[in-house]
Amino acid sequence: MNKKTKPNFKPYKKRSAHNYVFEMLKDYIISGVYKVGDQLPTEIELSQTLGISRAATREGLRELEGIGLITTVQGYKGGRFVNKIDSGIIVNGLDLLLQTQKASFDELMEARKAIECITVRMAALNRSEENLAAMSKVLNLRVDSKEEFYKKTFDLHEIVALASQNKVLFYIVQAIRKLIFQTYSNIALEENNIDLVMKTHYAIYSSIKNRDPEEAEKAMIFDIEAYRNLYLEVIEKHTKG
Amino acid sequence: MNKKTKPNFKPYKKRSAHNYVFEMLKDYIISGVYKVGDQLPTEIELSQTLGISRAATREGLRELEGIGLITTVQGYKGGRFVNKIDSGIIVNGLDLLLQTQKASFDELMEARKAIECITVRMAALNRSEENLAAMSKVLNLRVDSKEEFYKKTFDLHEIVALASQNKVLFYIVQAIRKLIFQTYSNIALEENNIDLVMKTHYAIYSSIKNRDPEEAEKAMIFDIEAYRNLYLEVIEKHTKG
DNA sequence: TTACATATAAATGTCTGACATAGCTATGAT
DNA sequence: ATCATAGCTATGTCAGACATTTATATGTAA
Lengths: 241, 241
Description:
Two copies of one chain form a homodimer.
Chain A: H1 17-30, H2 43-50, H3 54-66, E1 70-73, E2 79-82, H4 88-100, H5 105-126, H6 129-139, H7 146-163, H8 167-184, H9 191-209, H10 213-240
Antiparallel strand pairs in A: 1-2
Helix pairs in contact in A: 1-3, 2-3, 4-8, 5-7, 5-8, 5-9, 5-10, 6-7, 6-9, 7-8, 9-10
The structure holds a DNA duplex (30 and 30 nucleotides).
């Protein structure tokens, strides 16, 4: 038997201590033993229970923190707490990726348009009555500040994506939208722009209600391009002023 | 001034030691000071340079490992090495998300179809001559094993996504495809299936060459649904046998 | 010469135990 | 009532020793 082809038998399952902590807690969190908001055992408890030093235990916990599964809080009543697992868990990775690969604002908006358009079409075909009710409720909300209006906009798009009845698309749309708003922040809407956005949102709602994918897509395109243009205008002003 | 509204002034930027290590190295990696494959300074060097204990340094490194930026290798010629930043960096997060939210195989395939269809349409409109040449080269490759055929299939879809000229879509398509193949592994293709797939791939290539988005989308749908059906057949057999 | 065993080197991995710090809570003085 | 303070409980940090891993170099025997 050649040296090169000799199989490299490894001892049965000899993981490092820190990795053991990481994998074990990850599994517990994924399988729901620890739920959102739950506090993990303290470092000391964990290390004593597992027979692993505090240092190695902390390394495992730090890796969990890296992938976004837990949050660490120092001080009295502090500890490690299980995060909610939502689209946020891919936003950082996507951000990192697009930053290093130097993706442009236009590419991001184009991708958003492409994906959110197909999503709104599916929403028009698959929406439930509850989805409609939720959209209607959000549309009829009175808002008193721009912040509330942004929130309302975010919520509406979220329900639309949800109405597609496809979780994968839902989370991807959410992630892209979050990334756009966190990277390029919110534009300063003028009163007349608010009116325009509200009309467009109502058009999206109507066409979804009428199960009309063509119209829904048109309205969505209009909405997204309006945002894009507003953003570019603001940029324009800034670079000039 | 009320207690509740009293601003909580924090000392100017007092980060924890481990977080300092994490952020600093992250910035260096993102900005390209450390490039793909580069070895970071050893723990000891880092901790001595920064005046931070080895334990805290290791925690920061472990967090970097969590987000997928570096890989740790033990032993002689070991160390910490900078990873390639590609779609892989979001695959784990997406996997985690879909696992906990219990997204189905069908939802994943449907999302893939939706996104890869719009991507192939854009490819048909935006493809460059280089893209065509790359596709042609892959299509004409002789393959001797199923593994090589899988690789070939993967490469073709990758070039198609690239031809859309949109990095965001490219990475999202890649991430979804990787997730599908790593989760549901590869189906056992029969000889006649290979022929079918090759014909379909050629149809995708032709329609992109002809700048025909409609035909390109049709071919892509055919390709994806064929894969889906083959997979379901295999599952069927397994549950019966 | 070749194959195999062994030593070495250079990195990460682990452990212990002490002390520092953060931040909510309760207590007591004004 | 308000403010300062001490205490509690968690994480944060440190120093220093020793263990483990693994490629490479070295030596040894067939």
